[in-house]
Amino acid sequence: MSLLQTSWTETELLADEPNLEPLIVGDHRCHGGFDESGQYRSPRTRFRNPAIAAWQAQHSADFNTSLLDVPLDTWPPTSPNVAQSKFLLSEGVRAPVIVQLTRIGTVEGFGAAMRMWNVPDRQRFFVESIAGTTIEHLDRGLFEAQARDEAGWEDEYGHRDMWWAARDVAFENPVVEDMTELMLFRLGVTTAPGAPVPDAAAIRTQQHQVQVFAGIDLDAELMIQRMIGLLLIEISAAHLFAWAEELLSDSNLVAGNGEAARIVSYIRQDEAPHVEYLRTALTEMRDRTFVGEHGNIPGAEVIGTLWERGIAESTGTRRDESLALALREVEAGLIDHPRRVEILENYKALGVASPSMS
Residue 327 domain-assigned? Predict the structure, then answer.
């Protein structure tokens, strides 16, 4: 019999480490804090990290398989890359970098929607038991913990506001535009920036259109698709963190004496349990059997198909769209610059070719 504790309450999975010195940025308290040694401790990880480690160990003992993963080099560096961003800042062109940081924070704020992802009674979708697994705990604190990490909770800043705080420190409170409507469009929620969110019937029609396995409950498959998409974003974000930390630590180009980079490093640390619980839950699904309307389906077929589809979208169309958007933002930032053509050519020479750079 295993001695691992694999059953946890929501209260435990949302608990902070005790007696932490709060992280204050400006006049605002952020989540997390510092222990007696001065080490930053991520929020809601007092039991969440040990729980994830226990689920991983239990799954390895029960199934003897490796966790889902994908090499970081599957994704090229972020665009603009560090060299391009430093070049733009050295030329006094700040808008593209400020927009990038604003956009990141905006997307992080959408993490609050994870509270609506859960599908009740998940055991009905699997032949094998899900007791004592990550799957069982998705609605017992895991989705909620990440929603709070990303969007903030009560009076504490989460990642949305922490990214914006890093931007404001580095660029001394620049004037920025709200990017919510643009990002809702880019994420496929609306048909155009500023367009209304579709009604429930239209959303359901769209959901049926993206369903791959007709024999599996639609809401269950949508939850899996969202989890895969989020996990791939979290993994590829390692490039984004490296970009931001290197750029925002350069005191010759940005203000704050490295404070903005330190804020980003705390966010990066916070993301670690997100990656681990998502890849663990998806691995647990992969190694089980789905109950289908017309017969059982191996989890390897369901998760494998949706996983490969997610990677193809992430590294294909979405990557091209991201490169094209980055270039448009640079072009917009240079629209009135007297050396626009020269700077744009030098910028392109430092980056990765995209469809819009031909």
Answer: yes
Residue type, 60: S
Nearest to 218 by CA among 231, 229, 204: 204
Q: What is the pLDDT of residues 236-277, one digit of tens each?
A: 999 999 999 999 999 999 999 999 999 999 999 999 999 999
2 occurs within a structural domain: no
Pairwise CA distance, residues 240 & 297, whole Å: 37
For residue 62, what are the CA distances in angstroms to 2, 36, 153, 215, 288? 10, 38, 36, 27, 11
Q: How far apart are CA 174 and CA 100, in angstroms?
A: 13
pTM here?
A: 0.91
Residue 23 host element (H or E) = strand 21-25
Number of folded domains in the chain? 1
Token duo for residue 141: 């604190």
Within 13 Å and on the Cβ side, how many CA atoms surround 236?
A: 20
Asked if residue 9 is part of any domain, the answer here is: no
Residue 52 lies in domain? 18-357
6 domain-assigned: no
